[in-house]
Amino acid sequence: MEKTDFPLAEKSDKTLASAAREQEYVYRVETVLEWFHREMDTKKGWFHEAIPDPEYLPVAYFSAEYGLHHSLPFYAGGLGFLAGDYLKECSDLGVPLIAVGFMYPEGYLRQRMRADGWQDHIDEALDRNAAPIAAVMDEKGGQLVVRVPFIDPPIYVALWKVMVGRIPLYLLDTDIPVNDPWNRIISARLYIGDLEQRLRQEIVLGIGGREVLQALGIRHSMLHLNEGHPAFAIMERIRDRVAEGLSFDEAAEQVRTTTVFTTHTPVPAGHDIFPFSLMDKYFSGYYRLLGIDRDAFLKIGVTPEQPAAGFNMTAFALRMSAHRNGVSKRHGEVARHMWRSLWPAVPEEKQIPLDHVTNGIHVPTWIEPKMELLFNRYLGPFWLSEHDNQVTWGLIDDIPDRELWEAHYWLKIKLLNFIRSQMNRRWMEDKVNPVNVIAGGALLDPTALTIGFARRFASYKRASLIFHDLDRLKKILHNRWKPVQIIFAGKAHPADDEGKRILQRIFAFASDPAMGGKIAFVENYDEMLAQYMVHGVDVWLNNPQPPLEASGTSGMKSSLNGVPQLSILDGWWIEGFNQKNGWAFEGKGDDSDAEAIYKILEEEIVPLYYRPDENGVPREWVRVMKAAVKSTAAAFSARRMAKEYVLKFYQKALNPA
User: Fold this and answer.
1) Are the C-beta atoms of 330 and 357 separated by less than 8 Å?
2) Which end of the chain is more exposed for a tag (fewer CB within 10 A), N or C?
3) Tell me: the pLDDT tens digits for 150-182?
């Protein structure tokens, strides 16, 4: 069944009343709801079978962003989608988890492109009443409001809740009348540029989030931090134990042994560092509550190579967690090198206690329904429940080449139709400049080999690398018999002018008649557009500057749906590439990397794509598609990832020695 992009809230009363009179429709709704409630109420899942004594207090999972659905714009990129997929998989496996994050009423960034290619940020407040969230109520029947401890003047948060399957996600909201204007905007949007507001945001998330769980009466056995933004939750757990009579060292050791910390970025700018003066402003009264002095507190967040830089949230979290990991095998190596100064007594890098768990994707979320139907037919009735078993995916070879190719081509048409419908709407409703219509993909050709590139427009992602040699690229794009086109999407951070300039340059190419409409930039990249793109393009392009790709998950999503990847050997692709499931090149600098992309396109990808048999099916290309699915679906699933977290870290943290 086709996934719908239109919420019920947009349907008229007449339409809903008509549907309510249709017996078949009502029966289907009631059947689905009955199945859903039975599934949520009765299934314990893998966790209760795998862990000898599974009756633990829940794990508290903290993250600054969650990518769950485009109706909940509480994400900026891969970190959020990873967190969202993790919650979904923990629900599927029965992992006892509760999650804490922010309810961002203004989301991250709603992108609109000017005719000159400059990114505008459109303010569009979330309609809380229409969003799939529920207010958490207090005993008096009003929305629960909790004060963040030890901050003066006081900061209050209202509480919202989203059920992600069996997993409750509690969302903190500072945009309430009891707060003054300066405090109301703390949770307005993700990753506030102002440094002091960023610190206040992280205090609210970590300390306030911990206080919220206390107010709800939720005790938890351990803490899992998704990046350093919520790391102050560690200190609040310590403060509670000190208040009960433990020394700081005793309390810190208890908390450390029951804390898991996942670091996601090898990019130095991705780690928050706050000046000591700013820390003093907000924590001067907090130090004594821990039973330590100012210097001892601040020292926990200092990096030895830059002791005067400030309080580093990642260094703090690494020191205060016994279980630490990067998000791919390669990133684990990079992170150990990056943070080795925190363990000066360890003689060799391989002994540094920072492991890795390679990221994965939630297969039921990212598999396209048409592909799912195809898999149902040829992989057997239990493939989805067994999707982390590599043996399951050997049956991909039983799918007739023609059926897989036709399903993919249908998804490609679906993607291009979606892009055109978006531009038609912008043309009719917003009276947008014709330049935007052309640049937005109005001239895309469904018969052309289509490359997709969609991610954050940070400079290290090198979105414009393929334009390094324009003459050579034009020859590839304008090959009369074997044309190629490229679809770009992504957002630059509102404060990242360099990223905006890269985006503007690509938009200029997309609107340049010399490119013949073979370059498109689709604005406002979100979860919905991501679904269309990873399902519908022919090749997924990824060329960040190594070793700055911690993992990457977009290539996993495309490969799951039979879209092979052309990627630099960094992040997950070092583990995923097997010579048969896509294409890879070494990172040796812009000149060399651009040359590698052109050569692979000219000599391998384009000829292979345009080599159909007498029935119009490019069978050698379909072999690559099948290899992409087989190599990705199990090994890079969120199910494999969640099981690995449980068996590698949670078991130890739940049973500390």
Assistant:
1) no
2) C
3) 888 899 999 999 999 999 999 999 999 999 999
